[in-house]
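Re-running the complex after MR caught last week's input typo. The corrected sequence lines follow. Everything else is unchanged.
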Amino acid sequence: MSTTLLLIQLLNGLQLGVLLFLIAAGLTLVFGVMGFINLAHGVQYMVGAYLAVAFYGVTEHFLAAMVLALLAALAIGLALEFLVFRRLYHRDHLDQVLATFGVILFLNQAAKTIFGPTPLILPTPEWLDGSFLLVEGLLYPWYRIAVIVAGLAVAALLYVLVRHTKVGMLVRAGAANPQMVSALGVDIERLFMIVFGFGAMLAGFAGVLAAPIFSVEPGMGDDLLIVAFVVIIIGGIGSIKGAFIAALLVGLVDTLGRTLATDAMKLFFDVSSANQIGPALASMLIYILMAAVLFFRPTGLFPAKGMA
Amino acid sequence: MTTSFSYGAAFKTLTIAGAALGLALGTVAAHAESIKVGMLVTLSGPPGALGGQSRDGFQLALEELGGKMGGQDVEFIVEDDELKPEVALSKANSLIERDSVDFVVGTIFSNMLAAVFKPVTQSETFLISPNAGPSTFAGKNCNPYFFVTSYQNNQNFETLGKYAEAAGIKKAFFLAPNYQAGRDQAEGFRKHFTGEVVEELYTPLGHKDFSAEIAQMAASDAEALFTFMPGGMGVRLVKQFRAAGLADRMKFYSAFTVDETTLPAQQDDAVGFFGATNWAPNLDTPQNKAFVAAFEAKYGYVPGGYAMQGYDTAMLINAAVEAVGGDLSDKDAVRAALKAADFTSLRGDFSFNNNHYPVQDFYLLQVAKRDDGKYQTEIVEKVFDDYADGFAESCPM
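Corrected-run output:
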């Protein structure tokens, strides 16, 4: 593997990492603070992407579509919390999994009914619709750099919010010991709702960012949800910092692994066997990583509860 | 009765009710002299667009026939296999047992066909595939009750290999998803291509980010990319390939990657890219022109090969029903009438081989933007004339 390829893969890994972080951030808080398993979190990513496409159709302006999509994603998140999830907090995990899985089916089918089954696209905004020559003969789109920058900026913003604001303090406290926070007279339901809406909006933001690169289609969030769960388990449930580091780690391992695995196998096997084994091994890598992390740190890298 | 009733007593009651109803309907149907056609295609999820085209094409043909085949009323039942083998199987069984259809038209995907093949053919009901054409049933496992109106799956990539060979391409880069169909395409490509495949890459199914693969293409000295990336994967690959500026350096050849189901999303990014199959909307025959115009007027989108094959399947069944004078009880006669394929296919030349797979022409296609702003594939040149698949020899029929 050439250094060029390594460089490109590092950029791609970072990009996947920040998208994963945006999804995982909400998931880890919802899981950590409320002890609530929300399988429908990935579908918020799809909702964000579809909303952006819909609003772009109306406004024909990328940023306007993004802002409207974020507000609508927030509204949909809050509505789901109020109508469905609020009723599930005190029930066992199986009920939560069943009900939120139902929400996935419902929203995927709704997207298909409203927008049709064929993949849609969101055009890249004109002011980012260029590429620069990364190496001889290969252009790298500015938009992908913008995704990384936007993701890192949101991570920094979240850090400030969680570390240096009162709500952030309550969220951290809630993740470590929700009963105590409640006993101290904090309206935990309202806190849940804020966390939930915000998490849904972040996942929607990831969907908007991803829409111009990937295709917008029903079920697009389902694969990412599984990876997002891997991220929050590696990072430690309830920890934003853990989610950030684990997301970048998983993004890099997954992306680099895809190119390296086949090449590595070629050292041991002939080309056609390597072509068989490499891709199979590559798709297992993040789960192997998760198993390894759990072996040494059963509560993840930065467990929120352990700090209490 | 559908698959959702699977609970104890309710199930029993419904089974009895269903059986009684089935008997009643069966008796009525025999007197009413209507033809029953059951269609089993994928209508759920993103791949549902393919099944939707198939259904729309069939329905348009039915409409043009005045809702009748060979003078008899047609009852057209559409079922969704949801791209799940167990659902496909149960829907196929209900088409045969409950609806006692005369023909089952399905499926879109080869793995769905594998699930329904045995029960349908064993019940001596004719199974006509409007798209899936796996090698499995083309060779020694060919079946007297099975017909394919599309192609044998490998043929599109055989067309690309043949074209690449004739065009003097020496170095090719091959990219496909890591599953059986992806590997079959590589085999099909190599059948007529003697140049070097400098890299053969396989990605997971549903792959999102192709930039690593694109970087490898840029680093290689291949003249052209040959790829099989159906559905959303194709949309992403085309966009990212274009954004990386590779389109100026490498030719993009594909099958099932740039077609009328993906072009609405790929748009300008796909213009100039190549495909290969048995038909394109601009194929210049009077029947085809009328079909495309009528289809767009009725459904508002450009028909792809799936719609064409759906339409042809309806016309094939109609021709067979006419030939036997509406008497479907003599299966041998119906089979002979189907095999004769006495209809005018939208793609021009069409006949069935001994294995009931088509013998037809294959073309190299190129994506173009039409004057009305819509996108379609257009014929560049004919690569194969009356081309038969390579498995027919081992079929004992």
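None of the earlier attempt is carried over here. The radius of gyration of chain B is 22 Å. DSSP finds twelve helices and 14 strands in chain B.
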